[in-house]
Specification:
Layout: E1 3-8, H1 9-22, E2 30-37, H2 40-45, E3 56-58, H3 71-88, E4 99-105, H4 110-126, E5 130-136, H5 173-184, E6 190-195, H6 196-199, H7 206-225, H8 245-252, E7 257-267, H9 288-304, E8 318-325, H10 332-345, E9 350-357, E10 363-371, H11 377-389
Parallel strand pairs: 1-2, 1-4, 2-3, 4-5, 5-6, 6-7, 8-9
Antiparallel strand pairs: 7-10, 8-10
Bound molecules: guanosine-5'-triphosphate.
Residues 9-12, 14, 66-67, 69, 105, 107-112, 135, 137-138, 141, 154, 170, 173, 196, 206, 210, 213-214 line the site of guanosine-5'-triphosphate.
């Protein structure tokens, strides 16, 4: 399937760039990638070469340095500028995409303020699924910074921060996140969540950890959406079970389900054929037991390992499993077993599966999508934190 990826605000633009950078060669799943923000500085520094200049768009003249966490103002700015943003998409070919992916960091005012209006407009204009990819703020952001770095940092350079770099203080982040999620309810087809609190390391600031977090998130998003992309025309890379846009739509739903992503990966021995001149291009011999064990391991990690948003996998109503890697390693029986394991894990009945052969790959991976999960403890925590500041 082909996605129109749109990042809004600091986090959204960085994550959109990271997704573009993680796109596997030969399996392009991105129709276009756009970066929308209210500051020029961020657009030039953070989206870097992953987002072409013609697809970076600054809106909201007069807003410099962000909106100071004022989400109400953010909602107004979103409504005021949404048509202009929609027109900016004409630089690409949004009509050719199967769905939209709007990336945003919940907690701020720019991305969280603009996303609801943009999602509503995209639905109306294009009549295609609009998935939101949202980060949830970390507890460490809520403390009022004693370092005077409040807010300003969210629009700082992408370059690696110095050790101990200042943390942006966002006392309203939990409330902003909750309010944006409320606005998205009924508008977004589904919301894929990434919990910054769980993914940042102990003592690590958001600025220090965000590039790593964005790469982790982009790896998962790319493994999921690239499954049904590319490979056409080159017989050996065609999946046995292709996941297409309607499968993705079935799993994600259209009722703003909360979605979390799991992932497992294991390097495998590909016999060095990748570096040959075609002389060793025959499928390397792979012991069945090694292939089965690799597949079992990555699927177990995908289902029971760290999720982008922690939840009880049993609570999921729908799920999708994609297993990928060098074709010789994709043992059909082990993949079918893994799918049965996922079926018996989740509470719901809809479980889809697909494979993603990667002839040039050097690892076997499993991407797991758990949709319509809940209750989710982290969302409850954010609601409680929001009530405390209001
Ligand atoms: N994973 C991840 N989260 C981020 C990143 N940057 C910011 N965040 C999170 O996203 C939230 C919003 O930050 P930004 O996206 O910078 O905010 P904004 O939408 O530009 O809005 P304002 O700065 O308030 O105008 C923060 O509270 C963080 O939790 C990033 O690069 N990666």
């Amino acid at each position: 399937m082909q996605l129109e990826v749109i990042g809004i605000g600091g986090a959204g633009c960085r994550i959109a760039g990271a997704i573009r950078a993680a796109e596997p060669s030969g399996h392009s799943f991105i129709e276009d990638v756009f970066a929308f923000d209210t500051t020029d500085e961020l657009l030039t520094q953070t989206a870097d070469t992953a987002v072409p200049e013609s697809h970076r768009y600054r809106y909201g003249d007069g807003i410099d340095g962000g909106l100071g966490g004022d989400l109400q103002r953010g909602f107004e700015v979103g409504e005021e500028h949404v048509e202009e943003l929609d027109r900016a998409l004409d630089e690409g070919t949004p009509t050719a995409a199967d769905a939209f992916l709007v990336a945003v960091g919940l907690g701020g005012a720019t991305g969280g303020g603009t996303a609801p209006a943009l999602v509503a407009t995209l639905h109306r204009q294009y009549d295609k699924p609009v998935y939101v990819l949202a980060t949830l703020p970390a507890d460490r952001e809520f403390e009022r910074g004693g370092d005077g770095a409040a807010e300003s940092d969210s629009h700082s350079s992408e370059s690696a921060p110095a050790a101990g770099a200042a943390e942006p203080s966002r006392p309203n982040a939990a409330a902003n996140a909750v309010h944006t999620l409320e606005r998205l309810d009924g508008l977004a087809s589904a919301v894929i969540c990434f919990d910054n609190d769980r993914w940042l390391r102990t003592g690590e600031s958001l600025v220090e950890g965000r590039e790593r977090c964005n790469r982790e998130l982009a790896t998962r998003v790319s493994a999921f959406f690239a499954a049904g992309a590319g490979g056409a025309g080159s017989g050996e890379t065609i999946a046995e079970t292709v996941i297409d846009a309607s499968d993705v739509g079935r799993v994600m739903g259209s009722q703003t389900a909360i979605v979390t992503l799991g992932y497992g990966e294991q390097d495998v021995d590909t016999g060095g054929s990748r570096f040959g001149l075609g002389l060793f291009s025959a499928k390397p011999d792979v012991e069945t037991s090694s292939a089965v064990s690799a597949i079992e391991t990555v699927i177990r990690k995908g289902i029971h390992g760290k999720l982008t948003l922690e939840c009880d996998p049993e609570s999921a109503q729908r799920a999708l499993l994609i297993v990928g890697g060098p074709p010789a390693w994709l043992n059909r029986q082990a993949i079918a077993e893994g799918r049965r394991a996922l079926e018996s894990t989740i509470g719901g009945r809809v479980v889809l599966g697909g494979d993603a052969p990667r002839p040039d790959g050097e690892a076997v991976f499993a991407a797991v999508v758990l949709a319509d999960v809940g209750p989710v403890e982290r969302l409850e925590e954010l609601r409680a934190a929001a009530e405390r500041v209001e």
